[in-house]
Write a structure and sequence with these properties.
With 433 residues, the protein is an alpha+beta fold. It folds into 2 domains: 2-172, Chloramphenicol acetyltransferase-like domain (Chloramphenicol Acetyltransferase, 2-Layer Sandwich), CATH 3.30.559.10; 174-432, Chloramphenicol Acetyltransferase. 33% of the residues lie in helices and 23% in strands. The radius of gyration is 21 Å and the shape is globular. 41% of the residues are buried. The model has no long low-confidence stretch (mean pLDDT 93).
């Protein structure tokens, strides 16, 4: 979309279907932000990184926007403020307040060898964000080393403008005629002593990707199903300490599903939905083998085109209700908050978001040692987990806003028991190692 501003046309975008809820559920100390980063083999030159960042705006305009309020809906508008490359500070995913979001909805940081980008979730999901970061890194390496980097399904020609498909709301094209029913059974929620001033503990487990694959294939499941099984087992041990089995709640792991592969979408905006999968401990004790198969079959039963089309419809159909469309923004925000309280996090324990492997061209690989993905704690989930692999190394980032570190201890210790050596890193090692 375009509108005239000071004699020129200024781009603006409607929020995509998934993004509609994120501005509505912001709290004074929380908003939905995620981080993607790469670690290079040499220190980052901030001057060159700034030049690379500036060159991205024309090719990826939907990332260089500000959040605005209209009478009926919030929307994204082309930002007049430059995204300044800054030294990384504090801890990941510090709160993006409304003033910052009125200037830019993303941040670009550097620290020693690391380039990091933080995205307010209205811009995109993890897959779209990874494409942005990959192109930013490619441009940086071209400028610094004079490389010619080949184009693939990730790396784009910065001289070619984005296609309409890259900027579309793919939810609107792929919904079924009938909405799928939402899960209504509340899941067990982790809890603990909340940290002051919004501090987030970050524990990173670094491991060999091949060993992780071997362990998952030993149980004949995918890496995502395997990690979900180990996480569910760890959470069940925590719940066992709190109450007898007959009084326990289901342990559901929230798994984001990238819908692009199901519907052949090229969008760089949000196009993913989540499934809550996992066992009910009241039914009995599960072995790790049984948990792996449970997670695998449940995930693959529901992560298929027809069912996901019904889930898309559950989000799209309410937008077409005349009373809601004509309601002013503050009424919509109240409704969206109520919907989120009922179905947003009530039915899961925590996320495991696995972006699998960062698909970089061969020319880039000698310069990049690893990649990381960090999603923040949700409004009611104190813990979250995200996974990304590159160059044979997998980084599992577990973040929390509570003091208790039992979940990380159980989870990573269990991976070691299952034959996967794990190197642990922490942003507060004296307390968390």
């Amino acid at each position: 979309m375009m509108q005239k501003v000071k004699g020129r046309r200024k781009k603006w975008y409607r929020l995509d279907t998934a993004a509609l809820i994120f501005p509505a559920i912001i709290r004074r100390d929380w908003c939905n932000v995620f981080r993607l980063s790469v670690t290079l083999n040499e220190p980052v030159d901030p001057v060159i990184l700034q030049e690379a960042a500036d060159s991205m705006k024309t090719r990826f305009p939907s990332f260089f926007v500000t959040l605005r309020k209209g009478f009926f809906w919030q929307y994204l508008e082309e930002s007049e403020s430059r995204v300044e490359v800054k030294p990384d500070y504090a801890y990941p995913l510090t709160f993006m307040n409304s003033r910052e979001l009125r200037e830019n909805c993303l941040r670009i940081f550097y620290y020693e060898n690391r380039i990091a980008v933080e995205f307010f979730h209205v811009l995109s999901d993890g897959r779209g964000g990874s494409i942005f970061l990959s192109n930013l890194t490619a441009r940086y390496l071209e400028l610094k080393y004079g490389l010619t980097i080949s184009k693939n399904n990730v790396i784009r020609d910065l001289m070619v403008p984005p296609s309409k498909e890259e900027l579309e709301d793919s939810f609107l094209k792929n919904g079924a005629g009938t909405a799928a029913k939402r899960d209504t059974v509340p899941a067990y929620h982790l809890h603990g002593s909340r940290e002051k001033r919004g501090f987030r503990h970050l524990i990173t487990g670094v491991m060999d990707t091949e060993k992780l694959l071997v362990a998952a294939h030993h149980y004949h499941v995918s890496v995502t199903a395997f990690l979900a099984a180990v996480m569910a087992e760890s959470i069940m041990k925590i719940q066992d300490k709190e109450k007898p089995r007959k009084r326990q709640k289901p342990v559901r792991i929230t798994i984001p599903v990238d819908l692009r592969r199901l519907y052949n979408s090229k969008t760089l905006r949000n196009f993913s939905l989540v499934l809550n999968i996992g066992p009910d401990p009241r039914f009995g004790v599960y072995t790790i083998e049984e948990l792996c198969l449970h997670m695998y079959h449940e995930l693959h039963t529901y992560a298929e085109r027809q069912y996901m089309a019904g889930m898309i419809a559950a989000n799209v159909i309410p937008q077409r209700v005349t009373a809601l469309r004509l309601a002013p923004l503050f009424i919509k925000n109240i409704v969206l908050n109520m919907v989120y309280q009922v179905s947003g996090e009530r039915n899961g324990c925590l996320n495991i978001s696995n972006l699998t492997n960062l698909d970089l061209p061969e020319e880039m690989l000698p310069y990049v040692s690893r990649a990381e993905f960090i999603i923040g704690p949700q409004r009611t989930y104190p813990n979250n987990c995200s996974v990304l692999s590159l160059n044979g190394t997998t980084c599992i980032n577990m973040i929390r806003n509570i003091r208790e570190s039992e979940l990380e201890r159980l989870f990573f210790s269990r991976l070691v028991e299952l034959g996967i050596p794990v190197e642990i890193e922490s942003n507060r090692p004296q307390k968390d190692l």
